[in-house]
């Protein structure tokens, strides 16, 4: 189990790196105009909304299996690990943008970003608890 989590975490970080590189080069290929950078901001917002939606769906599946007392196939699933790491990464990027004053703190994105933070913290704790803590039997 631990090997799968490590492998999927590494793959998730590589995929997130490619997404970041795409957004970085997409910004530099935009035509210099009045609203330069608006495209990357919209991509960032879409990525946050996508990540919140994916996290809610995966937590719903996780809750379904937990309530049915069935084996949990999602505890080492790639998408579950990916959504947790992506959520944490997007929250860190949002904090950096706040501190650099690129995004205002009173934006409408705050509810989505704090929901994303809660989802990613719960998912990371869940992954850690299910896969890395030895249970005394």
From TrEMBL:
Keywords: Membrane, Transmembrane, Transmembrane helix. It comes from the Bacteria. This is Uncharacterized protein. The lineage of its organism: Bacteria, Pseudomonadati, Bacteroidota, Flavobacteriia, Flavobacteriales. The chain crosses the membrane at residues 5-24, 44-65, 77-103, 109-128.
């Amino acid at each position: 189990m631990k090997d799968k989590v490590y492998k999927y975490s590494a793959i998730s970080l590589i995929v997130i790196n490619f997404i970041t590189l795409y957004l970085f080069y997409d910004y530099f290929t935009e035509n210099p105009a009045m609203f330069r950078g608006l495209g990357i901001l919209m991509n960032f917002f879409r990525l946050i909304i996508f990540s919140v939606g994916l996290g809610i769906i995966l937590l719903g599946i996780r809750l379904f299996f937990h309530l049915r007392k069935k084996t949990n196939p999602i505890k080492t699933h790639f998408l579950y690990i990916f959504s947790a790491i992506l959520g944490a990464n997007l929250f860190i990027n949002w904090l950096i943008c706040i501190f650099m004053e690129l995004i205002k703190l009173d934006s409408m994105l705050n509810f989505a970003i704090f929901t994303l933070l809660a989802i990613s913290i719960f998912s990371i704790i869940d992954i850690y608890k299910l896969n890395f803590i030895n249970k005394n039997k």
